[in-house]
Predict the 3D structure of the following.
Amino acid sequence: MYQRSISLLLVCFLFAGVLFGCQSESKDSGSSDSAGTNKTEPESKQITIAMIPKGTTHEFWKSVHAGAMQAVDEFSDGNVILQWEGPLNESDREGQISKVENFIVKGVQGICLAPLDSQALVSYVEKAKEKNIPVVIFDSGLDGDPENYVTYVATDNYNGGVIAADRMAEALKGKGNVILLRYTAGSKSTEQREEGFLDQLKKKYPGINVISSDQYAETKPEEALAKATQLLNKYKEEVNGIFAVCEPVAAGTLRALEETELQGKVHLIAFDPNEDLVNALGKGNCSGIVLQDPVKMGYNAVKAMIQHLNKEKVEKRIVTGEYVATPENMKSPEMDKLLHPAQFE
């Protein structure tokens, strides 16, 4: 009887030990899981930003792309994918519209857009807003309600035209006949440059006469070459200066001056650099190049989008600056950097 009692007591002790051990093990396992969960930070949500320039072939857009990639590297923590897609030709409005539509259908988290046409893209930006896809406008303005987009990142293009007029007047010593060669209808950035140039000449330089201001070079250097050649031949005996309002127009105009043997005789004021224009500036065959900061433009456009997606405050207008390089100042560090902006291939 006594032995049975002892045996029963031992069984009870063993059972209690097993039960206590199981409970302890269960509690420890729970603590380990909890601690592991607390130590694991949530994964960053991957976002896709579409960036749609006016074109992809000119050096200006390659520099914008370089700035955009700098912003991705600096602000994204590796969770941002930048999809850079634009039409090859800056006359392809339908191509740009198609890309905007495609990105809306894909449901990207944001779109950075340089509108080829200030009016034609309005309804598509409105459509993006309806789909809760924010849009940053860069380089060239958009008509319609500014509330349809986050911000506008660009040069003060009107002032770019003003300083082009000032440089032209300086080169001509306040007297002479000039041609304004336009870009293409609907491009708000170049329309503002054209307006600033004409307004400043009219307001400040009565000794300078504009002999042609209604001709469009369109979007390719070859087209600009043809139009500039036509104008230079027509006004060969009286023209003293010509303002070309963007890189493809200036590139074609430079070639036209060479082929009509007016290089160095007619003062060229260009807007935006390329290698040939910079070389011409150094030789005195170009009297000035109005400079933007395309790297800064691309950088600020993507930075603004990332800030907006992170629910940070973004200014409604971000100006990236405008400058003029001359044969005299082109070797300065500031001008040299802008004449040879970074590019991303």
Q: What stands out?
A: Residues 4 and 10 are 10 Å apart (CA to CA). The chain has two domains: 47-155+294-319, 157-291. The chain has a mean pLDDT of 88.
